[in-house]
Each structure stands twice: as C-alpha cells, then as structure tokens.
Design goal:
Layout (H helix, E strand, L loop, with lengths): L11 E5 L13 E9 L2 E9 L5 E9 L3 E6 L2 E10 L2 E10 L2 E11 L5 E6 L8 E7 L9
Antiparallel strand pairs: 1-2, 1-10, 2-3, 3-4, 5-6, 6-7, 7-8, 8-9, 9-10
Length: 144
C-alpha cells in the first residue's frame, strides 16, 4: 500500500486532453507542460502550439510559501500559490491593456497520479477547465 501523502507532487510531463477540457479563446493544436515540483518551489514550462502550428514557450515559477513575479509577454504577473487541503491554488494578478487581470487556478491530482485538473472557478477565465494526462514521453517535442 502506498503511503498517503498530504500534498500531491505535480512533477511530470503533461499533455492537455483537448476533447475533455473546456478552454476559453481559440482552441490550440496542442499544449504540453513540464512541471518540476520540489516543495515549496514549482516550475511550470508550457509549450503551446496554436492551430497554425506556431509554438509559444512560457515558464512560470511559483513558491507555495510566498509571492513570485513572472513575465507574461510585456506584462508582469504577481503570483501567490497556497495549499487548500490537497489542492494547490495559484492566484495571479497583472495589468495588461490598462486593466487588472485576475487568474485563480485550482490544481488537483487524481488518486492514481495520472490526471491533473486545472480549474478556473471564480476569476477572469471562470469556467475554463484543463484536463492534463501524464505523458511518459515527449515524442519529437523538447522543452530544452
């Protein structure tokens, strides 16, 4: 029997299941994420491929015990990550186009550790739910 960890470890390579997800905005061709999680630090690398096969790479760093800042294009996001039970809540605010944007992402891991759900319940992306499946390989795509 596996020990019951109080907090999940999100480390791994994940791919968004576009059919199972509810995304705001234009639907991409593919979204891959590589997450390195060593409590209290979490590094999230995203490889976003749009419908025209144009790739965009982003990297975000979070600390579950404080505030971090991350560049998002020309803007800077101020982010706080905190645990609410077994769920990680990542809350970010940034000013873009003259207005403040608010994101509050709720991360949860399935009991078998193979499905990561990222849900926006009460923010500027409310209703968006990304269902990510753990990948054992990257295929032709590299995060390096």
């Amino acid at each position: 029997m596996m020990p019951n960890k109080s907090r999940p470890d999100f480390t791994g390579v994940w791919e968004v299941n576009l059919e199972r997800s509810i995304l705001r905005g234009s639907v991409p061709k593919r979204i891959l994420m590589k997450i390195e999680h060593q409590e209290p630090r979490l590094i999230q690398q995203i490889l976003f491929t749009n419908a025209d096969s144009v790739e965009q790479r982003m990297t975000f760093t979070y600390e579950t015990n404080g505030e971090t800042t991350n560049a998002v294009g020309e803007a800077t996001a101020r982010t706080r990550a905190r645990w609410e039970g077994r769920e990680l809540v990542i809350e970010s605010r940034m000013n873009t186009s003259g207005r403040e944007v608010h994101f509050k992402d709720h991360w949860s891991l399935s009991d078998d550790g193979q499905t990561l759900t990222m849900a926006h319940r009460d923010d500027d992306l409310a209703g968006q739910i990304s269902i990510l499946e753990k990948s054992s390989q990257l295929g032709r795509t590299s995060f390096d």
